[in-house]
Specification:
It comes from Humitalea rosea. One of its GO terms (cellular component) is periplasmic space. One of its GO terms (molecular function) is polyamine binding. It is found in: Periplasm. Keywords: Periplasm, Signal, Transport. The chain is an alpha/beta fold. The chain has 2 domains: about 10-20 and about 30-135 and about 275-335, Periplasmic binding protein-like II (D-Maltodextrin-Binding Protein, domain 2, 3-Layer(aba) Sandwich), CATH 3.40.190; about 140-275 and about 350-370, D-Maltodextrin-Binding Protein, domain 2. Helices cover about 45% and strands about 15% of the residues. The chain has helices at about 1-15, 45-55, 65-75, 85-95, 115-120, 145-150, 160-165, 165-170, 185-195, 205-215, 225-235, 245-260, 290-300, 300-310, 325-330, 340-345, 355-370, and strands at about 30-35, 55-60, 80, 130-145, 175-180, 220-225, 240-245, 265, 275-280, 345. Strands 4, 5, 6, 7, 8, 9 and 10 form a 7-stranded mixed β-sheet that branches. A 3-stranded parallel β-sheet has the order 2-1-3. Helix 1 packs parallel to helix 2 (about 45-55) and helix 10 (about 205-215) runs parallel beside helix 17. The longest helix is centred in the first third of the chain and has 16 residues, at about 1-15. The protein is globular. The two termini are about 35 Å apart. Bound molecules: pentane-1,5-diamine. Pentane-1,5-diamine binds next to strand 9.
């Protein structure tokens, strides 16, 4: 909330500076409509875009793929820029023709993206025609190591066991367990923890994942929006929370700043963590595709990208931004994972619609606890 507020303030201030003198007729106001994840930009990236182009930004946020997909499925979203994860959402949108093919001649900074990372997302978008890479990361756990040690003693802290083993979860429920409310982004890790295929469409596998989640359900205090989890983790409310990597590191940074003795750590589960890429994309019916292309070109500038990474604590795909990324961010393997850590990740794929629906029903039963 605070972020959104200060973002609109900045836009206001810069907008006011750019306002024409009263004698000249006001030019038709141009607005870019952005729908992005919460806590996922540097306010300066938006403010500098407006300052340079004169295009104002209306900035809305979501905190799960379910919300983004629901909004897009309803049609006529009115957004010029959205930021879907390469799998499963972006690839589905590409196949459904819901995205505009990008005109690279309008994105002079396109070539700054690391070819190896573009190759990774090409499986979701042949030819990389519909999306530029924004930020990427993994799914894992926020933990409070001191609290966990106080309850469980010297246990390994690198495993999803902290959340998924019912007897452990029961003990840790005293200091608070939370799971982000996104079946799409949680179920694959649960399947992997069970030693099953994260992309399984087999009903038996899904039943096993649901049973595992129901077994810990009494110990889970909150299944809630990832943005809410970020704030609560920073405030020290949970000692285990499953969410996105950079959100945990943002929470850790906020807790350090607050200096109230709340120690937070990110755990990339040793069983294998989901690796994901978020894409800058333009809906096929975007009101102002030219402004959207200009925004993508702006965001991919190394200095702008460095600011975004410094602010959000998520890695980007523009190597030339690295010299401008704070050393503490660049050298944190939970932000920029080592090749060995990348080797312990998995990626997901879109499932057949019936399997997606079955997963959504399982997730609802987990939330309801039955
Ligand atoms: C931002 C979370 C975005 C990462 N708060 C999920 N792909």
């Amino acid at each position: 909330m605070r972020r959104i507020l200060c973002l609109s303030l900045l836009t206001l201030i810069l907008g006011a500076e750019a306002a024409p003198a009263q004698t000249t007729p006001a030019p038709a106001e141009r607005t870019l409509n952005v729908f992005n994840w919460s806590d996922y930009i540097d306010p300066y990236a938006v403010a500098s875009f407006t300052a340079e182009t004169g295009i104002r930004v209306r900035y809305d946020v979501y905190d799960s793929l379910e919300t983004l997909e629901g909004r897009m499925a309803a049609g006529r979203s009115g957004y010029d820029i959205i930021v879907p994860t390469s799998e499963p959402s972006f690839s589905r949108m590409v196949r459904a023709g819901a995205l505009l093919p990008l005109d690279r001649s309008l994105i002079p900074t396109w070539g700054g993206q690391a070819p190896a990372l573009l190759a990774k997302v090409e499986t979701s978008d042949p030819g990389n025609r519909h999306g530029a890479i924004y930020l990427w990361g993994t799914v894992g756990l926020a933990i409070r190591p001191d609290r966990i040690r106080a309850i469980l003693g010297d246990v390994p802290l690198d495993s999803l066991d902290l959340l998924m083993r019912p007897e452990i979860a029961r003990q840790l429920s005293r200091c608070g367990i939370a799971v982000m409310d996104s079946g799409i982004d949680v179920l694959p890790s649960v399947l992997r923890w069970l030693g099953r295929d994260p992309n399984s469409a087999v009903p038996e596998d899904l039943r096993a994942a649901e049973a595992a989640l129901l077994a810990i359900r009494p110990s889970v205090r909150a299944i809630t929006a990832s943005a809410t989890i970020l704030d609560a983790v920073a405030a020290g409310e949970y000692c285990v929370a499953m969410t996105y990597s950079g959100d945990v590191i943002q929470a850790q940074a906020r807790a350090e700043e607050a200096n109230r003795g709340v120690q937070i750590r990110y755990v990339q589960p040793k069983e294998g963590a989901q690796l994901w890429f978020d894409m800058l994309a333009i809906p096929a019916d975007a009101p102002d595709p030219a402004a959207a292309h200009a925004f993508i070109a702006h965001v991919l500038r190394p200095a702008v990208m460095a600011g975004i990474t410094n602010h959000t604590r998520y890695p980007n795909a523009v190597p030339a931004s690295l010299p401008l990324v704070n050393a503490a961010v660049r050298d944190d393997p939970n932000i920029y994972p080592t090749p060995e850590m990348i080797g312990r990740t998995f990626t997901v794929t879109a499932l057949p619609p019936a399997a997606e629906r079955a997963r959504a029903r399982s997730w609802s039963r987990f939330k309801a606890g039955r």
